[in-house]
Write a structure and sequence with these properties.
single chain, about 300 residues, mainly alpha, 4-stranded mixed sheet
Length: about 300
């Protein structure tokens, strides 16, 4: 069966929702719930756990109700899906690359709970959008989107997809969007924050009002570095090679020639990320070696759309 859906070349003006890939140009950022999430027991003490150590979540996140942020994210995600569907740019459920993404997500999701207890309640979703952008993101509450361009242009292996998937999930698990909102609220002055805290309804409305910015919020360098490490551990536990982070960023660097130098960007340069990944590989290699390996392996999409 020839699976084809509309891409940027077919669209008159596709809205550019900035995503994380973060992995890509350094912005943060389709729809059936993923069933069968494995329930995990209590997480081991962090001081004794095996894997990366990135410390505790930022206290700024506590200034914003998690429920409000997740609700706003779900609304934005649904709106984005509807827009993509209206443009015939939303991959159908039987699309091979969407099935690939959902399979990889299903393997990673069971390992998210120790990073955020709310993750066990999230209704995880994955969609694939027919856009040439090299991008992907995971919004608060586990709403994941990949763009066709990142799979096709970078010709990603499953291990590299898992590294991106884990990286994007890490942003949601570490509540980086909620943290950024909290910092924004804090800068408005202690008096305003104090009055808002006296009535969570007011603060909730403030968070909901920022919901439309969830697709354009930018992450800091520390957020990106943290997501790289947490994502690497998630991928390793799910049976995907963490060393794929090196080849991923080599591909990303090749596709991002002409990007501004690191000191002009809010995100680490590719060479910096590769060094950090290589330095932390020993912490997760044992996890990968012992992890059950995927029963299914997929390949990247064709380098060019048929008939294009």
């Amino acid at each position: 069966m020839n699976h084809r859906f509309v891409t940027d070349a077919d669209l008159p003006a596709w809205p550019h929702a900035a995503g994380c890939v973060c992995a890509l140009h350094g912005r943060r950022r389709l729809t059936l719930g993923l069933a069968g999430l494995a329930a995990l027991g209590a997480a081991p003490a962090w001081a004794q756990r095996e894997g990366v150590d990135v410390g505790k979540n930022s206290g700024f996140a506590k200034l914003v109700p998690a429920e409000q942020v997740e609700q706003a994210a779900a609304q934005q995600y649904l709106q984005m899906q509807r827009q993509a569907a209206a443009q015939q740019a939303l991959a159908p459920d039987n699309h091979p690359q969407l099935q690939r993404l959902r399979y990889i997500a299903q393997r990673i999701i069971p390992y998210t709970k120790p990073w955020n207890r709310r993750a066990a309640q999230w209704k995880w979703e994955v969609i694939l959008i027919g856009s040439a952008q090299i991008n992907a993101f995971c919004m608060p509450g586990g709403k994941i989107a990949f763009y066709w361009g990142i799979l096709q242009k970078l010709q990603l292996t499953d291990d590299e997809v898992a590294m991106i998937m884990g990286h994007e999930m890490a942003h949601a698990l570490r509540e980086h969007a909620r943290e950024r909102m909290g910092k924004t609220f804090a800068t408005r002055g202690a008096l305003e924050i104090g009055s808002a805290l006296l009535g969570l309804g007011d603060l909730g409305r403030m968070a909901a009002g920022m919901g439309g910015q969830l697709l354009t919020l930018t992450f800091s360098r520390s957020d990106e570095s943290e997501a790289d490490l947490v994502g690497m551990e998630l991928a390793a536990r799910a049976g995907y090679s963490p060393a794929a982070g090196v080849t991923l960023w080599q591909k990303m660097a090749a596709a991002s020639k002409g990007a501004p130098p690191e000191f002009l960007s809010t995100h680490p340069a590719g060479t910096t990320r590769i060094k950090d990944i290589e330095a932390n590989l020993p912490k997760v290699e044992g996890l990968y070696e012992r992890a059950p390996k995927p029963a299914r392996r997929f390949g990247p999409p064709p380098a060019a759309e048929p008939g294009r």
